[in-house]
Design a protein that fits this description.
Layout (H helix, E strand, L loop, with lengths): L2 H20 L7 H13 L1 H9 L3 H10 L7 H9 L5 H24 L5 H31 L3 E2 L2 E2 L3 E4 L1 H4 L8 E8 L14 H17 L9 E3 L12 E3 H10 L3 H7 L3 E2 L5 H14 L7 H19 L13 H15 L11 H10 L5 H23 L12 H11 L4 H22 L13 H11 L4 H9 L4 H21 L3 H22 L5 H17 L4 H8 L2 H13 L1 H9 L10 H4 L8 H9 L7 H24 L5 H31 L12 E6 H4 L9 E7 L15 H17 L10 E2 L12 E3 H10 L3 H8 L2 E4 L2 H15 L5 H19 L6 E3 L7 H15 L12 H10 L5 H23 L5 E3 L4 H14 L4
Parallel strand pairs: 4-5, 4-6, 9-10, 9-11
Antiparallel strand pairs: 1-2, 3-4, 3-7, 8-9, 8-12, 13-14
Helix pairs in contact: 1-2, 1-3, 1-17, 4-6, 5-7, 6-7, 7-9, 10-12, 13-14, 14-15, 14-18, 15-16, 16-17, 16-18, 19-20, 19-22, 20-21, 21-23, 22-23, 22-24, 22-25, 23-25, 23-26, 25-26, 29-30, 30-32, 33-35, 34-37, 36-37, 37-38, 38-39, 39-40
Catalytic activity: [glutamine synthetase]-L-tyrosine + ATP = [glutamine synthetase]-O(4)-(5'-adenylyl)-L-tyrosine + diphosphate; [glutamine synthetase]-O(4)-(5'-adenylyl)-L-tyrosine + phosphate = [glutamine synthetase]-L-tyrosine + ADP
Keywords: ATP-binding, Ligase, Magnesium, Multifunctional enzyme, Nucleotide-binding, Nucleotidyltransferase, Transferase
Cofactor: Mg(2+)
Length: about 950
């Protein structure tokens, strides 16, 4: 007996004892007892279910004796739940039904009494039955309560699209279900006791269906439900009518959504309504021409998955890794997207069936297709087995000995090493086909060895004395630089020895470091000071030391000459960028595509890119969601900074990009927090995920569209719901409590420090009553505070305030409040005195300048003076000139002030020029990681102009 089988037997005996404790006096024939014992050892899931519900055993033994080719899950479930009269009983029954049949499926699989194809079909059919039958029960219940929505073909259903493997009838054993809901047409329920629009009816129905399936009760869970593939993602309506659905996919549908829709399947019974939905999707997914552009989109998606594997440090992942399940899906779906419009036989959902069609249509050689199918089924069998051990969604190979032994027993291997060899062969076969068809292999280094590179290989790879190493570097560098480079290289080698990296890492470094040194030495020809060359070397070596245990990143650099060039260039231009890459190695992926690196994502695409990135994260994995938000910010900031340091973006565009990046992240954080709060407490009256009656007001640099690389977010939260009302959840709380908890959750998501740092530092001191005030207040309370209690400096701050998250009607209400406050008549001499007094306090406490050095933010004649001048002019003149309240950014306000003759054109030009130059300097000082102090001679003219205008404006104070 091997130690592996011994572990399984021990586990089986432990569970057998527990089973006998709950089922004494039970005797089964030896053959059945042996089957049960074997299952108890192989699956914790089966064991725990049978111990908790021993009444399942008789059904299980019957199934094992006569494995069914097909099961009428829907008919059986209908008989059980249609007589029920309340939701609690419904929830209990569908969970019991799910667990019973999943135990049966797992048992047949683990004992190898059915094929993996049959298992996939049973799992999918069971999911269909649970979703559809639960929906039908709830629909009937809703129609009794509210009335039935009618359409041209009779009662309107809520159409349910199953996506991914559910749509393809190849569902994982333990899987999320990706769903999209829609309904035929807008309208109003006829004869309802009170008016109820179809949209409201179906939204309520969708929420109840998700709750029925997704909620974890004492009886467990049916399925984790993921709705993020719907139009507009989490910010989109939960359910959409077909006209809006069609408009979205015609006008906004993206390539990744086409890819997702290949497997989309209407789960409802066939009807004219379901036919309408299919007719909408067909032209979006399948183009009438041969669509080779789809290949590039698939290649980009695979690149994103590779990035995800590196980002999450995934190893031994049979789904996402090279040669994994996802690559087979890409191969099949590439043919469907490219040729499906012409070859209608490819317009099917299932992957296995698609591979068969590819053979029939001679689109893929029969031998290759057969190999792909065999390898795919092998991986799916391994995946199912891994998930059946504990009913957990995993594609990672086991690390513990018990699960390794279980896998070997189920797959009939004598040792885990034999299994690994067979698995590797299948994954190589898949990857070779993937590379032939789609190919995402980085371009190999084709640079021939040069004498310089050969010398640098000697310097790194050979055990040389310091003098010998200096002699090598002396051939290409000055004496002083050669000595400094030699010291740093020898020190780096010593550090590496202390870290004991893997043999693979050492081999990679052996080839990589000489190439990087070659790039660095070439860069020194354009460097003015030796210190800059040494700093460049230090930054690059520091990055290598930070990723020495993450060999995939070392190999990424080795295999991509272009990535090496971008790394050296960016490390030379900006120590801030170098530090970011060292802290967050995922940013190395960005170096692979220079065209994208130096062309930041357009503002309007931030939300879409963020949604796509979050779709690869489990919806209940909050920690990874927070990591993803931070990594998205870091990636986008790297692109902005790269364009900035190379001169591709002017200063105002840099701030625009950074500000609208913050907008996208704020929206996502609010949506995430809302989802978490409503799941727990329900929703406040009159609100929904689309209309939260909640807004985020941005102040300061955020409000003024002037964010920098290290800027905090100055925000205030407001809402528009009656605070005396209650939420509608089972754990109901007051609306006031709800919004306070929502604000706390938002702050948590922003400011929690993860391995990728904070998302943003958030400053809420500008809220009514400052730090002693509530985190969120009603908009009317905000207006009252601004009108009756706010200080002049708070009105100054309001000049640069605007809504950065919230629906148009709330933004309009805030704008009216802001205009009313800013337009109040003010006594000018008193206003001058208060503004000057506040400015002097700031200068006394914050200015770091002196006779030689200028503080570009706080010094006399610097940024803060310009900001205070603008705020004074708005507060002094808005009563007569309300147009001054239109903008929140200083440059456009200055332009408006000149247009309205409040200031001269000369003053406007001098202030704008100074302001932009100061801000540009501030951005670049951040990227160079230098202080905000500069030689006063550099900006003497700006400082003189601003100071002269200040003195003229406030001369009577």
């Amino acid at each position: 007996m091997t130690s592996g089988s011994s572990n399984i037997d021990e586990k089986a005996q432990a569970y057998w004892q527990r089973l006998n404790d709950v089922m004494p006096q039970t005797h089964w024939p030896d053959a059945q007892q042996q089957q049960l014992l074997k299952l108890l050892g192989l699956s914790d899931f089966i064991a725990e279910q049978l111990i908790a519900k021993p009444q399942m055993i008789s059904d299980l033994l019957s199934v094992l004796a006569h494995p069914p080719a097909a099961v009428d899950y829907q008919g059986e479930l209908k008989e059980r739940i249609m007589p029920l009269s309340d939701e609690t009983a419904l929830h209990r029954e569908i969970r019991y039904f799910r667990h019973t049949h999943m135990v049966n499926i797992a048992a047949l699989d683990l004992l190898n009494l059915q094929s993996i194809e049959t298992s996939l079909q049973h799992t999918s059919d069971l999911a269909d039955a649970l979703i559809n039958t639960t929906y039908q029960w709830l629909y009937a219940w809703f129609c009794d309560k509210y009335g039935c929505p009618q359409g041209p073909y009779g009662p309107q259903p809520m159409l349910i699209l199953g996506m991914g493997k559910l749509g393809g009838r190849e569902l994982n054993f333990s899987s999320d279900i990706d769903l999209i809901f829609c309904f035929p047409a807008a309208g109003e329920l006829a004869g309802a006791r009170k008016p109820l629009e179809h949209q409201q009816f179906f939204t309520k129905l969708a929420q109840r269906l998700i709750q029925a399936l997704n909620q974890t009760t004492q009886d467990g869970q049916v399925f984790r439900v993921d709705m993020r593939l719907r139009p507009l993602g989490e910010s989109g309506p939960l359910v959409m009518n077909l006209d809006a659905f069609e408009d979205y996919y015609q006008e906004q549908g993206r390539e990744w959504e086409r890819y997702a829709m290949v497997k989309a399947r209407v789960l409802n019974d066939s009807s004219e309504y379901s036919k309408q939905l299919k007719d909408i999707l067909k032209p979006f997914v399948f183009r009438r021409y041969i669509d080779y552009s789809a290949m590039d989109s698939l290649r980009k998606m695979k690149s994103l998955i590779n990035q995800e594997v590196r980002r999450r440090g995934l190893v031994n992942n049979i789904k996402l890794g090279a040669g994994g399940i996802r690559e087979v899906e890409f191969i099949a779906q590439s043919f469907q997207l490219i040729k499906g419009g012409r070859t209608t036989e490819l317009q099917i959902n299932g992957l296995i069936a698609t591979l068969d069609i590819l053979i029939e249509e001679q689109l893929l050689p029969a031998a290759e297709a057969a190999q792909l199918k065999e390898s795919y089924l092998y991986l799916r069998k391994a995946e199912h087995s891994l998930q059946q051990f504990a009913d957990q969604q995993t594609q990672e190979l086991p690390v513990n000995q018990l699960d390794k032994s279980r896998l070997c027993q189920v797959l009939n291997f004598g040792s885990y090493h034999e299994f690994e060899q067979a698995l590797a062969a299948h994954m190589r076969a898949i990857n070779s086909q993937f590379q032939l068809l789609i190919g995402d292999t980085p371009i190999p280094n084709e640079t021939e060895d040069s004498p310089q590179l050969n010398d640098l290989q000697d310097a790194w790879q050979l055990k040389l004395s310091q003098d010998e190493m200096v002699a090598i570097f002396n051939r290409y560098l000055t004496d002083q630089l050669a000595s400094l480079f030699a010291v740093h290289i020898m020190d780096c080698k010593t550090q590496i020895d202390k870290k004991h990296p893997s043999a693979r890492a050492l081999d990679t470094l052996s080839a990589l470091v000489p190439q990087l040194l070659n790039q660095i030495i070439d860069m020194t020809s354009s460097v003015q000071q030796d210190t800059d060359s040494v700093a460049l070397l230090e930054r690059v070596l520091h990055i290598l030391m930070c990723v020495i245990r993450r060999t995939t990143y070392l190999q990424l650099l080795l295999e991509n000459q272009g990535a090496q060039q971008q790394l050296v260039r960016l490390c030379f231009e900006s120590p801030w960028i170098a530090k970011q890459i060292a802290r967050y190695p995922i940013l190395l992926d960005e170096l692979l595509n220079p065209a994208q690196l130096y062309n930041p994502t357009p503002f309007q695409e931030y939300e879409s890119e963020l949604t796509q990135m979050l779709l690869r994260v489990e919806p209940d994995d909050l920690e990874l969601q927070m990591e993803t938000l931070r990594q998205f910010k870091q990636i986008q900031q790297l692109r902005i900074a790269s364009a900035d340091v190379t001169g591709a973006l002017p200063v105002m565009k840099v701030s625009d990009y950074l500000t609208y990046l913050a907008h996208a992240l704020i929206a996502e954080v609010v949506n995430m927090a809302w989802q978490q709060m409503t799941e727990k407490y329900g929703t406040p009256p009159g609100t929904s995920i689309q209309n939260k009656q909640f807004a985020v007001i941005g102040y300061g640099k955020l409000g003024g569209i002037e964010l920098g690389y290290g800027s905090d977010l100055d925000v205030v939260f407001v809402h528009c719901v009656d605070t005396q009302t209650q939420t509608d959840g089972s754990k109901s709380i007051s609306t006031n409590q709800f919004y306070i908890k929502l604000a706390q959750r938002i702050m948590h998501l922003f400011m929690t420090t993860t391995s990728s740092g904070q998302l943003y530092e958030v400053d809420m001191r500008l809220r009514p009553s400052g730090n002693s005030g509530l985190l969120v207040c009603h908009l009317d309370t905000f207006a009252q505070y601004q009108s009756e209690q706010a200080w002049t400096w708070e009105h100054q701050a309001l000049v640069r305030a605007r809504v950065v998250f919230g629906l148009t009607d709330m933004a309009a209400r805030f704008d009216k409040i802001r205009e009313r406050v800013l337009s109040r008549p003010r006594e000018i001499d008193s206003l001058k005195h208060e503004v000057c007094e506040m400015r002097q306090k700031m200068r006394d406490h914050l200015n770091k300048g002196d006779q030689q050095w200028l503080d570009v933010k706080q010094d006399t004649g610097a940024i803060a003076d310009i900001e205070f001048l603008v705020q004074f002019w708005v507060l002094a003149n808005a009563n007569q000139l309300p147009e001054l309240c239109q903008w929140s950014d200083n440059v456009r306000i200055l332009e408006q002030l000149a247009a309205l003759d409040v200031i001269s054109e000369q003053d406007r030009n001098q202030l704008i020029d100074a302001y932009l130059d100061y801000r540009n300097q501030s951005h670049h000082l951040t990227l160079k990681q230098k202080s905000i102090l500069v030689d006063k001679n550099q900006f003497s003219e700006h400082q003189s102009n601003v100071t002269r205008i200040w003195q003229r404006t406030f001369e009577q104070s």
